[in-house]
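Support request, please re-run this one:
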Amino acid sequence: MTRRGKQRVVTDRLGVHAEASEWCWIDKIPQPPAEVLEAAGSPRLRPARLPPLGLIGAVLGAPFVPLIMLLSFLSDMEEAAKRALGTNEEKAQWRAKKEDEKRRDATIAQQGLDKVFDGNWHGAAGQFLLRWYTHSTHHQRLLLATPEGIVLAAPPKRVSVGREKHMQVVARIPAEEASLFDPFFGEFETRMLLIRFRDGSWLRVETEELRSELHMHVLRQSAPGD
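Re-run finished. Output below.
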């Protein structure tokens, strides 16, 4: 079964009619002001640590880290050699790609999208962010776009394997309160999407898949005439 096929099986099990879905995560939550944290009931701001099975896997995998780093270095060297020996057309394509990356990075910095949220703790996004790990201590979420709004599903507690097996709905955001938004309108191929709330606040998520099914769904929804 394909990866997307597995996700559809999971959404059916959850009883959610999803138009698109993708696993995602958020960046590190910044430390909120003391009064904001206290008013929210001092919620958890970090995911849970890896369970014992995950720690064992990390220890067993540690000896392979140098090999992985070497393979990555060799891959970079091979890519550099290809660029140096490539045709004029290939070199032009590479330069165009680098220019796109520069424009993307400049746009991210200009719009403040290098942050996990817009910075207003009293806005809808900031308040939702404060409850992110209260909903689930797992570090990832399956984000589902539905006709009724946005659904987030995850294991209640962090797991190292079998996330789909333990998953349940952990949060729902009605369409009247928020929607998914691609800040680049498809211009750049990225993992970034925003959950944009009606008060103008936003929360940034990163998808596992580059230009995922969710990205394409968002672009279709925002296309002229839709």
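The mean pLDDT is 85. The longest helix spans residues 88-110.
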